[in-house]
Amino acid sequence: MASAKGAQFTSSLLFEKAFVDGKWVTAKSGKTFEVCNPSTGDVLGTVPDMDATDTRQAIEVAFKAFQQWRETTAKERCVILRRWSDLCVENKGELARLLVTEMGKPLQDAQGEVGYGTGFMEWFGEEARRAYGDIVPSPFKNKRILIMKQPIGVCGMITPWNFPNAMITRKACAAIAAGCTVVLKPAEDTPYSALALCKLAEQAGLPPGVLNVVTSSRSNAAAVGKELCENPIVKKISFTGSTNVGKILLQQSASTVKKVSLELGGNAPFIVFDSADVEAAVTGAMACKFRCSGQTCVCANRFLVQEGIYDRFVKRLAEVMNADLRIGDGMDPATTQGPLINKAAVEKVDGLVKDAVTKGAKVVLGGQIDAKGDNFYQPTLLTDITGGMRCFQEEIFGPVAACVKFKTEEEAVAIANATQYGLAGYFFSRDIGQIWRVAEKLEYGLVGANEGLMSTPEAPFGGWKESGLGREGGKYGLDEYLEVKYVCMGGI
Prior knowledge:
This protein is of the alpha/beta class. It contains 15 helices and 22 strands. Keywords: Mitochondrion, NAD, Oxidoreductase.
């Protein structure tokens, strides 16, 4: 347990060691790295800077634990996940405060994330008992066709900083429920939420070696990822992050033909048709765009607004942004917009805005780094966006709404689909025929029709095209960690 250095933050769930084989451990090299509060810049503490050797040892531990964990019943796994869930509920305030301090999002958002993350424990604990196989009618009188599902084995996981609680539970709880064991590397910016979950898992009765967390700095991240992907003991890789890194991990995993789940970048369209309810569309836009200060992979990136409603939508969105968005430290109850994760993130967003302005975009609101601090960027509304601007082509990952005018439904769908990404898309319309047509034509794994927030443990989450492979959440999420076996029983 640690206390923050210079930040006056203490927590019974803040740990400065990695978690392997049910023990709190250091890196073999003895090296550590600092974790900072993105809002204040204060150092919260340090964690081990682990490398490929440390990761290899964790994989071997997980493989040994798998031999016993795979033999547990679905009910036994369900009970442990339920206890883990209950402990997270009991400690939700502490988990949320810890999350705010290392990641920066407002406390209310952090509380919502902890609830969301806990939901995966509940969901997959219950789904473990529904990993049904099949008896298939046989064309042969003396043979029976039996289909069973079995845990795939040791699973390597790499999780992002923007949802340091829920992205872990969405992956790890599915694997654990299926009977697999886990070696997980959390983002270097937000390791403490992962380690806090380990402590509560231990208290819930999860056996040593089933969940292992290795921490590493950016300098060791590539080596850790390579070990997870190329080690033949690991049978499954699950990664959430950038498309570029996902492609590298996919290439590395090919060496051992691993099963891979990738949840990668997006370039989400948010389409507002003339038939839309403007107030509902603006409400959806606010929830979709500015959650987590725009730092989610499913945030609206390109606002496509039909010409008949364009001016009214932009005017109303500007009014609501100006009235409802407040920049500040996440612990302040009035804050709705926390900091971006680090200086590099701010520089990227500022660069996208400046590129757009240089090429003719107009700034309706914001457009600058905020006086609150180096990591704060003003909620920004841009109009007159064109296809040649970087903010139209790239994932913004910040609080910038970029608006494009279109004429016809066909044009909107064509613009929306003209990207290599296919994670999330949104549209608002009150025309039922149009709703069906557009929902079917959008080339995205998640589509919100008159809805800006879609994520829930009960539904599958994942992208098309270069936005990823596989699904997390829902009944499909458990299948990612199960192998299908066909048994032909003869001599009947």
